[in-house]
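B., you asked whether I could sanity-check this one before it goes into the benchmark set. Here's the sequence:
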Amino acid sequence: MRLVPNVVTPDLVWNPRWRRFSTAELIGTGIIAAGALPFAVIPSVGSAFKTPTGFDESARNVLRLPTLRGRNTARDISDLLLTVSITYPFFVDALAAAYLKDRSPDVAAQMLQMDLEALAVNAFASSLVSNLVGRERPYGRLCPADVANQNFDCSSTSRYRSFFSGHSSTSFTSAGLVCSHHLHFKLFGGGAADTLACVTALLAAGTTASLRVLADQHYITDVLVGSSVGAAMGFGLPWLLHYRTGGSILPGSGAARPGAVTWTLAPGPLGGTLFGTF
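And here's what the prediction gave me:
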């Protein structure tokens, strides 16, 4: 009797019509991540963009928590939620679901690289804009007399990094990644479970953004712009670079013709590079 080896077949398979993560993208992701560091370290001296709009001021008067202790608590909770948001796509979706549960290291690797790419581009954009704009955070108007135990915040270089909100953009980048991956893979078995994962991620991102206003760390326009940028990064980049097929909007809606040019967009710190293969 001939023994047939037990071959483990992965439950998730990468659609061959989707673009795989390329070496050029991996290099570009590293360059972008490295490019974000100087802007995160170099202090911003502030700018004329300090005076809030009427909308900002009205929202601050309504939403800002009345006590310093309450504002500090809201800030700490937003930091915790941000940490959970950043780690979730890596450890839950890619490693726990795709790699361990569905036995697909290939799909897990593709997802991990897309996660790194989107978060790196978001980090570069948010650190660059906040440094160049130099908008003072709302609590800055209280420095230094009215914030005895906020001396660190008042003297910190982050005091002039209000626009746009990095917490909001990062949280919504992560939420966009979660929704994008669960849309294209049945990581939790499909149906309501995968929909719930997306909804939960969006709610967590919205809560994080709201807490930044409650904590007096950002004006509401900082949060709205940051949330929009993050959502575009988290959902848009995976679709633009990978999940769409050769210009088709829906995965599987068409394959590249023999002899046709396949276009690939590789991100760079000042934009992107478009190149084609035959």
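One thing to flag: Residues 68-101 form the longest helix (34 residues). Otherwise nothing jumped out at me.
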